[in-house]
Amino acid sequence: MEWIEQIANRTESITKGKMKHYGDGDVRLDKSADWVAEFSYPADAEFFIHARDDIPYLLSLIEEQRKALEWYADEKNWECQGDMSNPFDVEPEPTYHDRGERARDALRITYKEG
Question: For the residues 5-23, what does the mean pLDDT come to?
């Protein structure tokens, strides 16, 4: 996870505040008009501005999906609970009750609302 932590650290250390792209290629802080960057192409400026929100969102998706995968990878979630010698006292494994819900939740959050 070191690579993801490095990305998160770089994201947290960037200039704070809402940025705006001006027609001349400049990207400035919206309220103070402080210059942040200059781009030759409008699409590059838009990518730069939106990356400040998009990257943390994508990192949060990775974390949620990692948690779901870890749960399914944990062998104890695949073991029946209770007295195995008495079939009436055996509780199905947690994955039986889950029926893929954690996976569906992790996939559902992939699609950002709004």
Answer: 84
